[in-house]
Specification:
With 154 residues, the chain is α+β, with helices and mostly antiparallel strands. The chain is 26% helix and 27% strand. It has a single domain, classed as endopeptidase domain like (from Nostoc punctiforme) (endopeptidase fold (from Nostoc punctiforme), Alpha-Beta Complex).
Length: 154
C-alpha cells in the first residue's frame, strides 16, 4: 500500500508516525515529547496534534501502568470516531489487547506496509521504543476497536 493513494490528512498521519518510529523515540510511560519519549497514548496524541485534529493544549494522563476497563476507550472516543474493523485504513488508530492483560491497554497507528499489507506503529514497552510491526501478523487479532481522528475526510 502506497502513501500516494491516501487522502492528504491520512498521508500526513502516516508520514509523521513513520518519522517518529524511524527516530527510534524511546518508550516511557506517559511520555509526551516525540523528540524524547512517548507511550502508546502519547504517540496517538502527538500524531493528532501534528495534523491539527487535537488541540495543542490537550493532555491525557489519568491512567496507571495497569489497564482499567474502558479507560483507553474513553481516551480514543475523545479523539476519534469509531468505525468498522473491516473499514480500516492507513492513518486509523487501533485499540488493542496485549498479551497478559484482561482489558484493552494498548493503541497505535496503522500505516501502509509492504506488499499491500498494513503495519502498526506503536510505542511499545516490550521493545523500549516506538516500533513498527506487521499489523495482520501480530496485532489484527488483538484489535478491539478502530478509530478515525475527528475531522478526517476520505
Amino acid at each position: 500500500m502506497q502513501f500516494d493513494n491516501l487522502s492528504p490528512k491520512r498521508k500526513e498521519i502516516c508520514e509523521y508516525a513513520v518519522k517518529v518510529q524511524e527516530a527510534k523515540t524511546r518508550y516511557r510511560h506517559q511520555g509526551r515529547n516525540p523528540e524524547v519519549s512517548l507511550d502508546c497514548a502519547g504517540l496517538v496524541i502527538a500524531c493528532g496534534k501534528y495534523i491539527g485534529c487535537i488541540p495543542q493544549e490537550y493532555e491525557y494522563s489519568r491512567y496507571g501502568r495497569l489497564p482499567v476497563l474502558g479507560e483507553i476507550h474513553k481516551l480514543l472516543i475523545q479523539m476519534g470516531d469509531v468505525k468498522n474493523k473491516s473499514d480500516i485504513l492507513p492513518g486509523d488508530v487501533v485499540e488493542l489487547n496485549d498479551i497478559g492483560y484482561q482489558w484493552p491497554c494498548h493503541m497505535g497507528i496503522v500505516v501502509p506496509g509492504t506488499k499491500g499489507r498494513l503495519d502498526l506503529i506503536h510505542a511499545y514497552l516490550r521493545v523500549g521504543r516506538v516500533a513498527r510491526h506487521g499489523y495482520a501478523a501480530n496485532w489484527e487479532d488483538q484489535t478491539v476497536a478502530v478509530f478515525q481522528y475527528k475531522g478526517i475526510d476520505d
